[in-house]
Each structure stands twice: as C-alpha cells, then as structure tokens.
Amino acid sequence: MQGVLFHIGPVPVYNITVTSWVIMAILALLFYFGTRNMKRIPSGIQNVAEAIVEGLLNFFSGVLGEKRARLYTPLLATFFLFILLCNYSGLVPGAGMVHRFQPPTSDWNVTGALAIVVFFATHYYGIKVHGIGYFKHFVTPFAAFLPLNLLEEVARPLSLTLRLFGNIFAEETILFFLLGMAPFLVPVAMMGLSVLLGAIQALVFTILATSYIGAATE
C-alpha cells in the first residue's frame, strides 16, 4: 500500500517514489563510475557496465538490426534495467520488514508511467523516421480500419501497464501470505522463482516496447 513518507513543500513524496529514486541512483552511479576513466582493456566496474551494454545491444540488434539498435538501445536498456531492479527490490533481505515498502512495479502508477513513455517514444521515433507519412499506417490497409488501428494504439499502453503491474503485484501478494503461513521453507522457494519471474517480466515489457518502436521505424 502506498504511503506518504514526507513532503517537499506541499508535494507529498510516496514510498514507491523514494524506492524509484534509490534505484535510479544505483544505475546512475554504476554507469558513472563505469565510464569515468574508460580504458581500452576494461576492468572492474567498467567491465560490468560494458558487459551489460554489449549484451543488451546484441539482443536488441536481433530484433531491430544493428543500426536501429544503436539508436534505441539507450532508451530500451534503461527500461529493462530499471524494471529489473524494481522487480528485484522486493527480494532484498529485510525489505518485507520495512513499513509500507513495496517494489515500484507493483503499483500501476509506475507501470502506467513507463507505458506512457513507450507510447510517446514510439510515435516520436515513427514521425522522426517517416515524417508526416507515418500516419498512413492508421488507415492501412483501408480507411475503414482507422477506428480499429486507433483502438490498438490505445490498447498497447494499457496492456503494458496491466501486464507488468498484475504479475508483480500478484507475486508480492503471494509472498506476503506465504511468509505469514510458513515463514521459512516455502517463501525461500517462492523467492527463487521470483528471481526468474522478475527477469522475465522486465524482458517481456522491453521486448514489447522494442517491437512497437521497431514497427514504427521500419
């Protein structure tokens, strides 16, 4: 459940907001220190950062092709890493003992915000590549398909929002009840499964975002 931790002037700051800030700070520090003194032969944090970026770039290249992947990997990789850490934040030892703590992706406001970014990024890149001709796909193959194509565009962010939110919220709810019924054995197995599910959900969201941007820019 969301809770107000403190206020900045009249603006309330919620628990999931603070958690999101911490996750963003972790990612920012990782890549700041990984690129601060770059060497031809990487080591330490630079090696970790390069391995992450190279792995994601190769993955997106398989969907978009290398040229487009290099353009859109910064956005898509940010989605994947942010969602992955949000999903895993609930597995940090002791996280369940913190009052009102919850992974940001278990709140539909966060997943909805991510989906809205995907929505606008898709159309932005589509217009950037195709110009005004991008809007022709709304009346393809016939003008009569305009309502259906518009409905599909609206359904995409809604689907992204509910899929990620529903899976993470359900996982957190199940873990909560299992901890109450069997606080030692069962939750351990469930948390192991949560590691896999958290990665899958981050991957699914990112793959769908990649396919939307890929279709808009092909």
> How many individual helices?
6
Helix-strand pattern: EEHHHHHH
Secondary structure tally: strands: 2
Spatial strand arrangement across the major sheet: 1-2
- What is the average of the pLDDT values? 82
Global geometry: globular
Q: Helix- and strand-based class?
A: mainly alpha
Strand content: under 5%
Q: Give start-end ranges of low-pLDDT stretches.
A: none
Q: Radius of gyration from the CA trace?
A: 20 Å
Helix fraction, binned, reads: over 70%
Strand count, sense and closure of the main sheet? 2 strands, antiparallel
Distance between the termini: 42 Å
Summarize the structure.
The chain has helices at residues 15-35, 44-64, 66-89, 108-130, 146-181, 185-217; strands at residues 4-8, 11-14. The chain is mainly alpha-helical and 218 residues long.
Structure, explained:
The structure is a single chain. The chain has about 220 residues and is mainly α. It has six helices and two strands, in the order ββαααααα. It has helices at about 15-35, 45-65, 65-90, 110-130, 145-180, 185-215, and strands at about 5-10, 10-15. It has a two-stranded antiparallel sheet with strand order 1-2. A hairpin with a 2-residue loop joins strand 1 and strand 2 (about 10-15). Helix 1 packs across helix 2 and helix 2 (about 45-65) packs across helix 3. The protein is globular. The model has no long low-confidence stretch (mean pLDDT about 80).
